[in-house]
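Onboarding guide, step 5: your first structure request.
Type a short instruction followed by the sequence, for example:

Predict the 3D structure of this protein.
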Amino acid sequence: MLKHDYMQVSQDQPIYSEAPLQLLLFVDGRPKSRQQVQRIRAYLKELQAEYNFELQIIDVGQQPYLAEHFKLIATPALIKIHPEPRQIIAGSNIIAQLKNWWPRWQTAVDAYLKLQEDLEDRIDDNNRVLSPKATIRSVAVSAELIKLSDEVFRLKQEKEKLQEQLQFKDRVIAMLAHDLRNPLTAAAIAIETLQSNYNIETGEFQRLKPSMAAHLLKQARSQTKTIDRMIADLLQVGRGNDTELPIIPEKMVIGNLCLDVLEELRDRYIAKSQKIETDIPKDLPCVYADPERVRQVIVNLLDNAIKYTPDGGTISIAGLHRTTQKVQFSIGDTGPGIPIENRDRIFENHFRLQRDQGKDGYGIGLCLCQRIIRAHYGQIWVDSAPNGGAWFHFTLPVYPS
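The system replies with structure tokens like these:
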């Protein structure tokens, strides 16, 4: 009978064995288990003097994926991997259990060898002897397959992460490009108004009061600064590997920010003869949020409100000190509203209501609005306005006093 010495699982040189009985001994580096492992190995070496089997020693510290593969919860542990069925022996009395199971394992080995003999003696219809090779794959090969499987899983995760990063960049860049139109339009209108009223010969503005000229210059300068910040955001998103928007919170007065955005969009809602109603309490507490990100949320919500509110309609803006820790801000309109069945999906990326397939809006911005608000640990949702239309609400944390 062939005798097999102890074998350490090698990842560089996989072991192929014809031994019908294959055992794995999982060990660890704990001092407490060292003596127990020595006793087990000594007992198995005694058995190897009489029986043909392969023993492989596996250090769970070096190959933890194998311990995970066999779902081990304790070491040392002895596993019979062949012949099937697999069996695990663990605990403080492995030798005693092994003495009990060894005769049964030998019976299983005898049955396996008898089966192989029967297969080798079988003759097919063409009088050819069927002698299948029953080479038993060593656990070293299994270890390689497990490692490859883990590597494939890791690569799939990396692929999903990269896809998420690319999708995130696409969404942010699309939203920023979408939002760039507002400050570009405002700056262009201010510059065109100044240019059309400027008299080159006199060096003065005609039909424009000095205060209005100063206001338009301030507006153009303010809008170009906004454009510059948004371009910086685009470049940052293009370079980064994040899947979340960078948030730099600070103490801010959200009511003032909203009034600034209204001023930027003034020409748009005046062109549609829309009425603006505001209900922002003077004692509304400051919030702890990123002003530029919150500005993006307000710009998108007001942009949609103006777009979907018909000429002569009303846009409402309200603030509410909802709890000691949250401020709620709401923007409503008198447009067509959002159907109940779509109120959760409206914040999904690129989701469009069927009625809006030919329009711009409610497609890119709302998904990013949700990301911004959630990054502030807030919530955003939509419901029906009392006088028709939609009410968009979002919450932000109160600045700690």
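Each response can be followed by summary notes, for example: The longest helix spans residues 139-196.
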